[in-house]
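ok, trying the design again with the full structure, not the truncated one.
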């Protein structure tokens, strides 16, 4: 049931304790709670925020509306980790409800300065006419408890030429200055990103628009993130309003990147290639990156998209974050690999290998609801003697997982054209089927006939697939029955060698209980 505006824009203090307890009890009964992904105790999670390596630990926050699964009053919920696999619950990190964030502490980023962690975020406010007035705010923390807001906001108004859709500052250090990029909508209702510069994180000067070669590319750009990696300048952003083009742009909103020359320190001009989607799955949005402990670039995304209903909405919670991924650049494209620390979640290794010829095959001990699978498929040429007529181009190979009596999720690779497809049409409870039930990615023609590897992370209600050595990813929520635990590999119309390993994955260590401090914020009935 949709909430009214008044219900959505309430603070925890305005809720009755019974309301929180009711959500907790719904969540406890949910059969789709994740095992090792970051998820909200109750309510709705969206964008990752403030992702920073600070004082020897990773700090990661997420947008959180505690009181329901609509988008309402947003808090920042805080988690801390040493290895990007196990997380400590650090409670609410930033709370809305002040003069400049009366209607939500919206997305933003973190940066260390003088030994403190600064959070720059969008304070969302609405006036009596429900017109939005965004402020770019600063708060500071030593990594524990609630961040202290520094008032007044550091950017108090929207510059001329842009609408009220002006948000999600991502800040970085540039020489002795700081710069930030903010998602914006021009008055002509096209999306863009703008740049600001500051010597101290408090005084910001508007530099102008980030000048790209996409003057009319959707109506709003959310959650921009600029960084440099392997000598390239990279802008991640989420354009809204792109029309689907064949296999591209199939989700309600997109998330992708431009890769080009690093931005000049004193310039706004960005010379770049085409817009490339970051992920080929159904549920991926608003990613944010940080520099890791060893200078590596780590990305975390929201495993969801805005404005759609999800099967857990009636269970008192919605969405989770993706696993952290390490980025690199290869041939002008971003490569994403699971963060190295995730191997620490692995249980006992179960190896498997078989040659499959027009058949399905399962392996003992290779099944479950929370696991990692790593395997290669090596298509076998029809004639064993290698000659000119030899073809490797026959056959469709793949895996069915979360299989049960009536359910299966299918990932298949068509060796004749390099097409890789994820099919969730039979994955269980339906999820936004109006946007289709398959997603595909096509490999480069020069990879045809070669073997292909996959690393697949399945959790109770999701899958993340890393293709090859990270050349593509598919991220999707799945809502199967808990009894659908099967896995089978298949070769159709050809033969291939399958070889790999399976690991049960442990939980991420986060307590499943809502911290008492949060429950206690709610009103006790007299
Ligand atoms: C993206 C987004 C951001 C905004 C936040 C609010 O999902 O709409 O633009 O800051 O969510 O929760």
């Amino acid at each position: 049931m949709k909430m009214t505006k008044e219900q959505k824009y309430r603070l925890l203090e305005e809720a009755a304790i019974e309301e929180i307890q009711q959500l907790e009890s719904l969540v406890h009964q949910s059969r789709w709670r994740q095992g090792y992904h970051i998820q909200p105790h109750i309510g709705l999670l969206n964008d990752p925020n403030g992702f920073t390596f600070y004082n020897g630990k990773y700090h990661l926050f997420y947008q959180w509306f505690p009181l329901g699964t609509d988008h309402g009053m947003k808090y920042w919920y805080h988690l801390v980790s040493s290895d990007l696999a196990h997380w400590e619950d650090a409670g609410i990190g930033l709370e809305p409800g002040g003069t400049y964030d009366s209607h939500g502490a919206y997305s933003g980023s973190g940066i260390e300065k003088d030994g403190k962690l600064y959070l720059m975020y969008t304070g969302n406010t609405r006036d009596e006419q429900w017109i939005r007035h965004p402020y770019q705010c600063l708060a500071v923390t030593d990594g524990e408890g609630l961040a202290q807001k520094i008032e007044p906001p550091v950017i108090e108004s929207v510059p001329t030429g842009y609408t009220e859709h002006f948000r999600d500052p991502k800040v970085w250090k540039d020489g002795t200055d700081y710069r930030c990029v903010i998602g914006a909508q021009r008055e002509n209702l096209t999306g863009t990103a703008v740049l600001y510069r500051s010597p101290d994180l408090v005084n910001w000067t508007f530099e102008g628009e980030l000048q790209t070669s996409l003057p009319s590319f959707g109506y709003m750009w959310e959650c921009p993130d600029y960084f440099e990696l392997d000598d390239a300048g990279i802008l991640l952003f989420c354009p809204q309003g792109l029309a689907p083009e064949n296999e591209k742009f199939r989700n309600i909103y997109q998330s992708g990147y431009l890769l080009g020359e690093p931005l000049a320190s004193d310039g706004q001009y960005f010379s770049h290639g085409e817009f490339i989607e970051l992920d080929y799955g159904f549920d991926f949005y608003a990613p944010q990156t940080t520099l890791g402990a060893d200078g590596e670039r780590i990305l975390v995304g929201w495993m969801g998209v805005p404005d759609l209903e999800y099967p857990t909405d009636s269970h008192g919670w919605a969405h989770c974050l993706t696993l952290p991924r390490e980025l690199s650049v290869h041939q002008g494209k971003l490569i994403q690999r699971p963060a190295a620390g995730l191997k620490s979640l692995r249980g006992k290794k179960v190896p498997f290998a078989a040659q499959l010829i027009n058949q399905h095959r399962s392996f003992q001990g290779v099944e479950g609801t929370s696991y990692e699978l790593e395997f290669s498929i090596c298509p076998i040429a029809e004639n064993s003697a290698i000659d000119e007529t030899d073809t490797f181009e026959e056959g469709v190979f793949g895996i069915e997982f979360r299989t049960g009596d009536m359910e299966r999720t299918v990932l298949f690779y068509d060796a004749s054209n390099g097409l890789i497809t994820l099919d969730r049409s039979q994955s269980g409870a339906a999820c936004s089927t109006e946007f289709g039930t398959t997603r595909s990615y096509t490999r480069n023609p020069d990879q045809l006939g070669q073997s292909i590897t996959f690393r697949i992370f399945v959790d109770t209600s999701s899958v993340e697939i890393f293709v090859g050595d990270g050349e593509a990813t598919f991220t999707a929520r799945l809502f199967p029955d808990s009894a659908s635990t099967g896995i089978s590999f298949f070769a159709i119309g050809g033969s291939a060698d399958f070889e790999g390993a399976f690991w049960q994955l442990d939980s991420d260590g986060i307590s499943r209980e809502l911290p008492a401090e949060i429950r206690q914020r709610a009103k006790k009935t007299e």
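Keeping the full-length input from now on. Helices lie at 5-8, 17-29, 516-521.
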